[in-house]
Amino acid sequence: MSGYLEPRESARYWYGDDERRVLEALSGRYAGANPPVPFALRAFASSGVLQTREGLYDMDLSAKLPEAADGAYAYVCGLVWSDDERSIDALMEPLGPTRLYMNDAELYRSSAAEEMKPDARIVVPLSFRRGWNAILIECRKTPAGFGCRFGADEAKVRILHVLAPFAEREGSAGWAYSSASDRRRFGADFGFPDCRGPEEATGLAWLPRMRWTAQEAELPNLGRVFGRPAAPAAAYGWSAVAVPAGAETIVLEGRALGATTIWLDDAKAVELGAPGPFRVQALVAPGTRRLFVCSASGSDGWGFELHAHAGGRPLPLELPLPVHGASGPWLYAGPLPAAAGEPDPDAVCRTDVLFPAVDAAGRSAGSTYWRLDGPGLMVRPYYENAMLSNKWTTGTATNYARWDYPLGVTMYGLLRTARALNRDDLAAYALGHIRSCTDLYEYALWDRDTYGFPSVNHQLVLIKMLDNCGSFGSAMLEAYLQTGHERYLAIADTIADFILRRLERREDGAFYRLCPGEYSADTMWADDLYMSAPFLIRYAEATGRREALDEAARQFLLYRRYLFMEDERVMSHVFDFKYGKATRVPWGRGNGWCLFSLSELLEKLPEEHPDRPALLELFLAHCEGVAALQAESGLWRQVLNQPEAYEEASCTAMFVYAFARGVRFGWLPEPERYAAAAFRGWRGLTGGAIDRQGNVHGVCSGSRYSFSPDYYMYDLRTVVNDNHGIGIMMLAGVEIGLLKAALAQPHRAAAGAQA
């Protein structure tokens, strides 16, 4: 066996030295395994359980059930779907006596000390089975408190998305909580509720309410959804009608309580200047046709009725797009300013826009979003493509539409691979992933501020560290430089402000991780050169702000003082300021991040830049140290200077990338030596880590840090198709192709052709 594969399984066995075929396999497998699945739209009760900014579900039942007596019990129930068997750490903060069950097994019971300690926080491991998992939390009220806060540790990375239990709530998002009971109802001695059966079978009433009372249902639609405003207001309605084959016209009829305009697709079908009935006949083609209504409040109420029929048969209205857990055919937005002007249905009937809201008195009230015909029921988009146990592995889930740092490398790799292969479809796929994140940026900010914790773009709108923004932001700017899409630049401005103005720094200006109370408090990581520099380089290119490029250069020289092991000419993974020393463990991928990023900086840094000589000297020294540690197979090791460490693929790909660029751009002396090392590394990857289907083997999972090399060698194991390795494999292959072309035409300029 060579590396992680039998020779016959390897890409090299089938494709030889044809890096284009390898790139086709890598990119094709990734795109096929991660189809462009959109965000899920779900009904969400805004009066239900919300989340804290940290992502814990706030189940303070004292506020939800104020009439409950001391000693009363209540239950909180939810469903979690898992694509595979997986585990995460949950956090429990009991406010009183609390028990946690999952799949009818008790996982946690609070102690007296925990119940009385206001800042108690307990880690509870959760092991999910494939499919549905039922979570039940029992809370008992005491004078000290009633309820708990519960959720995933690192919630914006390890997403614990909870769906509502019980048949009546199927498809909606969020927890259900019971009315108070004077006795225990569930548990090992009492049995457990069927969380997918009817609510009434549990013997308890469950909240939040999802349906109107009979009295509420009698109100006009906009009045029951938004209330009756004291000042003039407007609202939108969005629905669809299915026109059968053979129908050439349909009839729209109904009545409105205020001035109302109705569009059928893009054409105005009804225009009422005052309350009253309407009946119109409209030409229409078969298929699903859009209905859009703008209706103002009236003196006798607020709302409209709309019915459609063709050939004497009623045509049912339906939701214009799938919203899980919704009932009724309409989406509504409001209350809106009454004098907002005539809307453009194409600009309104979308899920990536917010609307200017007013309160009952007609005063500006921020923004609002689509809602449903139910008490406090909102439409919420959710990222559900992967509920992860490990931050970066996918199992059977898809990564599409996720913003996180390993996927930033993947998107960059796909964009450059698309150019190298002249594959517009591949570029469109990567740009679509990026757009899926950025199109909902404004919504995600609003969602975070409205519900406490966002349902999409978790890391982008909760930026706390470089991991959250730099890598994917760099890929986004790569897309901006190709497309000029202005929203990318607006988001990049926010990221740049964080990095340049708000990120923690040492006294000398070096970036570091403050992280109070966490294991990584007061540390500097080699990884952060990648998390910052490529973004700053592209931001400078996109905006002309030299400050960003200067900062990237400055950080490399500062990091050298702390992390570069001059005697071995490799980088320590971490400097721990708590101990005042570097770990002196040269983790492979940490070194890869540094050389990868430094090669990108040198490409863009002007020849006359004052830091260029020192940066070029660092690049030469680091390449020299790394080159001396290449294994006979062509790969490099997980801990570079430990002969017993396993050979690791992602760092190898980064070194191949940096060496190829160093030769191609003319930075490295002995170009034949480094070109040979790059080719030997690529052959090691294609022969031992990339199989013929494009699967990537031998990539270390996401790392913490240690002063002991044993942690990296024995605790961090390799994962097939870990996202840390896929993009960089493609980038290494692209650079190998460019290196071949440059060596074949030595008369060409050192820069060569860009991909």
Overall mean pLDDT: 95
| Largest β-sheet summary | 6 strands, antiparallel
Q: What topology, given as strand order, has the largest sheet?
A: 6-5-8-3-10-11
Terminal CA distance reads: 34 Å
**Counting H and I runs of at least 4 residues, what is the number of helices?**
21
- Rg from alpha-carbon coordinates: 29 Å
Low-confidence stretches: 388-395, 748-755
- SS-based structural class? alpha+beta
Described by its quaternary structure, the protein is single chain
**Given the C-alpha coordinates, what overall shape results?**
globular
Which band does the percent of strand residues land in? Answer: 15-25%
Helix content: 25-40%
Tally of DSSP β-strands: 33
Please give the structural blueprint.
Elements: H1 11-15, H2 19-33, E1 40-45, E2 57-60, H3 61-64, E3 73-82, E4 86-94, E5 98-102, E6 105-109, H4 112-116, E7 122-128, E8 131-140, E9 147-152, E10 176-178, E11 206-207, H5 214-217, H6 221-226, E12 233-243, E13 249-256, E14 260-264, E15 267-272, E16 276-283, E17 287-296, E18 304-310, E19 313-315, E20 317-318, E21 331-337, H7 345-348, E22 355-358, E23 364-368, E24 377-382, H8 405-421, H9 424-438, H10 441-451, H11 458-461, H12 470-483, H13 486-502, E25 523-525, H14 527-543, H15 546-563, E26 564-565, E27 570-571, E28 574-576, E29 581-582, H16 588-604, H17 612-627, E30 636-637, E31 647-648, H18 649-664, H19 671-688, E32 699-700, H20 709-715, E33 718-719, H21 723-744
Antiparallel strand pairs: 1-24, 2-9, 3-8, 3-10, 4-7, 4-9, 5-6, 5-8, 10-11, 12-17, 12-20, 12-21, 13-16, 13-18, 14-15, 14-17, 18-19, 22-23, 25-28, 26-27, 28-29, 30-31, 32-33
Helix pairs in contact: 2-8, 2-21, 8-9, 8-12, 8-21, 12-13, 12-14, 13-14, 14-15, 14-16, 15-17, 16-17, 16-18, 18-19, 18-21, 19-21
